[in-house]
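User: Structure with NAP, tokens only please.
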Amino acid sequence: MTKVLVTGAAGQVGSELVKRFPAGFEVVGYTSSELDITNSRLVNQVIVEQAPALIINAAAYTAVDKAESDVERAYAVNETGVKNLAQAAMALNIPIFHISTDYVFDGTATEPYKETDPVGPTGVYGASKLAGELALAESGVKHIILRTSWVFGANGNNFVKTMLRLGKERDTLSVVADQHGCPTSAVSIADMLWLFAKKYTEDNDLPWGMYHFSNSPATTWHGFACAIFKQAVEAGVLKKAPVVNAISTADYPTAAKRPAWSVMNCQKIDRVVLGCIPGWQDEINKLITEFTNNEF
Ligand SMILES: NC(=O)c1ccc[n+]([C@@H]2O[C@H](COP(=O)([O-])OP(=O)(O)OC[C@H]3O[C@@H](n4cnc5c(N)ncnc54)[C@H](OP(=O)(O)O)[C@@H]3O)[C@@H](O)[C@H]2O)c1
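Assistant:
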């Protein structure tokens, strides 16, 4: 059995990681109340006690707008928390799989971002996540960083659930149509990380480093919303779809600036783990089908 310690185990991705691990793995999941990664003493104690073969960090401060006024906490979790894990892992030579974000880029590109493209976050959340990436890289610990985007899943708040809730309440909605990105299911991120974990146990090594991973193809929030409503009506989760008006970013001001373009090039990960890029359409279909029996 390969023992894997998962932090942030109640989050969108963390909860899928602890549900979906493959045979041959034993998973110890810690929620934020059980292991606060900003507490270096506790991080060290838990890692020494558990002595896992691998750590997957799914813990993060993810409130993009709130981070603008909660700078210290965002950095405490997204930078110092990662440093704490890296220090404890380094002492025992344990690799870390870490998740990062498309928001490390400035959003001015017109081609999908490669792993080697220059970064330039425009908000506190993106900057704090970038600081975490750098802390991990500088720690010397063996690591995989998976940058992903527009995450949705059964647990936690996300765009799919917000749209379904608003679709129940309203006949008309306005959704931003000039921000481009790739929705990505928490399930597919968890599955991807487990593929890396399996490869690691089989080969006792990995092509370590940075990888971009999202579902395909690129769309806008407006395109994503329309697809969600189409599927929700087909699955019987909504009686009828609301009218979805396309608006611009300027019409929907937010505390944190959002990148106009956050599409990532996933060719590197697709080369390493063949055929690994699921379509988000199938992923929302599966999730919405789950909601036919359960409340979202
Ligand atoms: N959500 C997105 O659209 C998106 C997009 C790109 C990348 N990502 C990245 O993907 C990863 C997973 O995100 P997600 O969507 O699963 O986020 P999430 O649902 O917000 O989960 C993050 C988890 O981390 C926990 N956490 C927060 N502070 C912590 C601390 N100090 N110590 C331990 N745990 C702590 C949270 O617990 P509490 O709820 O108790 O605070 C939560 O359970 C993150 O690295 C995120 O930056 C997310």
